[in-house]
Amino acid sequence: MSTYIYSGPTTGLTLRASDGAHVERMLFHGAPVELPDCAEVRTLVALKRLSLQPDAVNVAPVPAAAPTVVQPSASDAPADAAAAASATATAPATKSKGA
Fold it and tell me: Could you tell me which residues are beta bridge partners of residue 11?
């Protein structure tokens, strides 16, 4: 059996392995799945629904990039927020009727 990565809608397969046994598998988009070598699998490979997963031993790990931290600055603030803040500060106070 080989490991493939499935690309397509969720589906189920019932296949006949080379030894004659039935193999049932659920296929989920982007998930690896082990499948026997049979006509149905070759058809899905030809339709590009299955791609052979590269051997984990032969693939060099890709180092993760360091996260980038972005600090907001005062110039990033929207102009409307600054105008609203200054309008609130200069608004006249209202008197209550009970005083």
Answer: 27
Judge contact between 52 and 11, C-beta under 8 A: no
Tens of pLDDT along 55-96? 744 545 556 566 666 677 666 556 555 555 555 555 555 565
Contacts of 24 (CB under 8 A, 6+ apart): 12, 13, 14, 15
pTM: 0.52
d(CA 98, CA 24): 80
Contact 7, 49 (CB under 8 A): yes
Whole-angstrom Cα distance, residue 23 to residue 31?
Answer: 17
Q: In the numeric block, which tokens belong to residue 39?
A: 């006509």
β-partners of residue 34 are 3
Average pLDDT of span 14-29: 86
Q: Is there a contact between 52 and 26 (Cβ–Cβ < 8 Å)?
A: no
